[in-house]
Amino acid sequence: MIGGYLRNERYPEALEMYEAMRSHSLRTDSCTCTFELKACTSLSDFETGMEIIDEARRLFDEMPPKDVVCWNSMIGGYVGACDFDKAFDLFFKMWGCGIRPSPITMASLIQACGGIGNLELGKCIHGCVNGLGMGCDILFNTSLVDMYGYVQNGLYFELFDLFFRLVSSGGGFDSVTMVSLLQGCAQIACLFTGKVLHGCVLRRGLESNLIVLTAIVDLYVKCGSLKLATSVFSRMQERNVISWTAMLVGLAQNGHAEDALRLFRQMQEEGVALNSVTLVSLIHACAQLGSLKKGKSVQAHLIRCGFVFNAVNITSLVDMYAKCGKVESAKRVFDNGSTSKDIVLWNSMITGYGIHGYGRQAVGLYDRMIKEGLKPNQTTFISLLSACSHSGRLEEAKALIKQMPFEPGNAVLEALLSGCRTHKNINMGICTADRLLSLDVMNPGIYIVLSNIYAEGRRWNEVDYVRGLMRKRGLRKTPGYSLIEVGNQVHAFFAGDNSHPFWSLLSCGDYW
DNA sequence: ATAGGGTTAG
């Protein structure tokens, strides 16, 4: 019964049942306790989880004849609670008792290796498993795939190599293995490997699995191949919020925000309810389009539906209002959620102040943030610096960089550099550009700003020199543009491009 | 009876 509740993710009921069982003085075994542990960890009730695992261990020690399932439950319990040392201790004890481990035992250990990030140990265990003759076990191999996925840091090659060796030696995989692989492939955005994996899905007959297909859509999106993503998505027999959202994000993030909004309407017509992730990507699409109207209408729609806003949603709204030029509205939205200790939310408001040059307010919010015990990160400083450099507080900016608890990254220095340009501080500008070029020699933006700084100081020889460097290194300037909403349309104005029909209106003064 | 999965802001 308890197991049934767990399978249906009804954790509170499972816990209640467990309590009832104990109050009737029924004997609970280590498996029941592990069930309970699972319920606790799923409920993020960490303390109860720890109590229960200790209790599980006590019962486990009292049980005289223990089969492999009991050992696995207990080891798995420890791994689930991130108590990896105890998991390994118990494994050695089990070995000492002469119990032959099963693939599940080994899978739990591999999971533990991923958890502590010890790949070498993982490889050791992989070797043992081959020795035990379980090298082709689907269950075990899935955990391996997971471990290589977990450890990340450029181990994708090993991961795919492992997988393809597995397939060619006749070893199996299932939908869960495949989803892990697709995810790993999406992270490195390797279209070629993606297509091969897609082929494996078809050959394996997994092409009607909703989760696998959603992962494929996301993979093609991350590889920038909207054509393939769309073709998979449009052929899906079954779709849910997550698959719709994956496609929507794909459109929005590849510069097709209008299409994303169109897809959203289609989703509503088909009666699929949106969730908070859908919302964030929608608002993001509106912000990209610079369309305040669409953003506001999405917000209004949600308020009507009684949608509960969380820190992430509020962040996206703050971001959208700020990008559309409405700092006051951004602040109002922010105030509604400012009891949250979410650093990203606070950063978004500081960024909002920054892009509009409200240096004083940005610094004020930063002070308040420190007072409330929040820890600033790189993004915080980037936003602060851009706020300071827009409003002429260069020395303050420089002091901020000095007191940063970490080395300034490219973005921090870029913000300072653009401030130097705005305020014509040639010497600080040259120093900053030098430092930046030593970090990122192929960034055209740095050369552009540096040559502008020289030009403003009328140092033409240096201007020529910098431009020559750019040419020699094959770097080109990327055009800047801004978005303006007029009526129901958003127009893009590129720097140095006066061809847009609205320029004539601008110069006639009809519109503004 | 014991493991594992897909989408989001800066």
Model description:
With 512 residues, the chain is mostly helical. The protein has a domain at 482-512. 71% of the residues lie in helices and 2% in strands. It has helices at residues 2-7, 11-23, 30-42, 46-62, 68-80, 84-96, 103-116, 119-131, 138-151, 156-168, 175-188, 191-204, 210-222, 226-234, 241-253, 257-269, 276-289, 292-305, 311-323, 327-337, 343-355, 359-371, 378-390, 394-402, 410-422, 426-439, 444-456, 460-472, 502-508, and strands spanning 481-486, 489-494. The protein has a two-stranded antiparallel ribbon with strand order 1-2. A hairpin with a 2-residue loop joins β1 (481-486) and β2. α4 runs antiparallel to α5 and α21 (343-355) runs parallel beside α23. The protein is globular and about 85 Å long. Mean pLDDT is 82; it is low at 493-512. The protein binds one DNA strand of 10 nucleotides through α3, α5, α7, α9 and α11.
